[in-house]
Structure formats: structure tokens, C-alpha cells
Write a structure and sequence with these properties.
Structural class: mainly beta
Order of helices and strands: HEEEEEEEEEEEEEEE
Number of helices: 1
Number of strands: 15
Strand order of the largest sheet: 1-2-3-4
Strand content: over 45%
Distance between the termini: 46 Å
Shape: globular
Helix content: under 10%
Radius of gyration: 17 Å
Length: 192
């Protein structure tokens, strides 16, 4: 895995086995990437100078492979999900301690997910494939960032139309763009 400049990220991660079966997510606002691997590790690598990538931090989150990584809309938080449906919320804010803030386990048959941050909460929004009916649903999990001991709030509602993709609508917590299955109509999704 080489950056355009030719620098090899496996040298930064110190071991070739850390580069086995990786997924990579680019931070939307800052010059670093997150790399998840089949050993349950997540690495944050700074790319200010792409010829000299620097390892910022490393997390051993799980003994299971990491299957999903996603930064929040402003890049301050990373959600990592392993194959056993363990969800890890990691603070990745530059200039502060990078640490795991929350962990929860919930089996979610998702098609798509993203997270929206505000000053004191992180909303994780999943487009969930239905296992019992023909209708998909939206699941929103709200994590309080100013009270790490607070219970997470969840809200789920069924959709009348199946969607293949969902995107945030202008950083809103309650409105989303949806792309219908088998067509390319973009609609605004909201809770009725």
C-alpha cells in the first residue's frame, strides 16, 4: 500500500501483518487516515507530509477483524465496527488525547451509516436492512459526549420505501438524503 509519493505505510505500522486485510477511511477535515485490520487494530496515520507518514496512535479494539470505519462529519470522532458488531466511538480530535470514548455491542444489518457531531453529542445514523419485513428502517443512536456515563438514546423508524443509500442532509440530525433502490431518485428522508 503506497501513498502517491511512494512512501510505504506498512513501514509506519512497523509490521507487514498489520497491513493484512485492511480498510482505510480518510478524515474529511484533517490530513490523516484511519486504517483497520483483520487483527482488530485501528491505526491513525498523519499525512501532513505524504512522503513521511507518521503514526499518531494505535488501538487494539478487538480480537476480531474491523469491518467498518467512518469519521464524523467534522472529523473529530471515528466509529469502528468489528465483525462481531462491537461499535467503538473514538475521539480523534487533533491536539487532544485520542481515546476510545464509548463501546457498545448491537447487531445491525446496515446498508449505510454515518455520524453527525455537535458540541455535546454524536448521532450515529444507520440505514438498516429489514430482516422481518420488506421495509428498511433508520436507526439513530445518540452518544452524549459531555457525559460519558450517560445512557445512549436510540430511535428507530420504518421507511415506506426501500433505499440503497443514505447521506446526511446539511449536517441535520433529523433529515437525510435517500437514494431509492432500483432507481436514481434522491429524496429527503425524515421521521413522520
Amino acid at each position: 500500500l503506497d501513498i502517491k509519493s511512494g512512501a510505504n505505510i506498512s513501514k509506519v505500522l512497523k509490521d507487514e501483518k498489520n497491513m493484512k486485510d485492511v480498510i482505510i477511511e480518510a478524515n474529511p477535515c484533517y490530513p490523516f487516515i484511519a486504517i483497520g485490520n483483520s487483527c482488530g487494530n485501528v491505526f491513525c496515520v498523519q499525512l501532513i507530509d505524504p512522503r513521511n507518514p507518521t503514526l499518531l496512535t494505535e488501538f487494539l479494539l478487538s480480537r476480531e477483524p474491523i469491518q467498518h470505519l467512518r469519521f464524523s462529519n467534522f472529523g473529530h470522532y471515528l466509529l469502528a465496527i468489528d465483525v462481531e458488531w462491537n461499535h467503538f466511538v473514538i475521539s480523534t480530535m487533533p491536539g487532544s488525547k485520542q481515546t476510545v470514548l464509548h463501546h457498545f455491542r448491537r447487531e445491525i444489518f446496515m446498508k449505510e451509516f454515518f455520524s453527525i457531531e455537535s458540541r455535546n453529542e454524536l448521532s450515529i445514523v444507520f440505514l438498516v436492512k429489514s430482516t422481518s419485513s420488506n421495509n428498511d428502517s433508520v436507526l439513530k443512536i445518540k452518544v452524549k459526549l459531555d457525559d460519558l456515563d450517560a445512557e445512549m438514546e436510540t430511535d428507530e423508524w420504518e421507511l415506506a420505501t426501500p433505499y440503497e443509500m443514505m447521506l446526511p442532509f446539511n449536517n441535520s440530525f433529523d433529515l437525510f438524503y435517500g437514494v431509492r433502490e432500483k432507481c436514481r431518485f434522491i429524496e429527503v428522508i425524515f421521521k413522520n
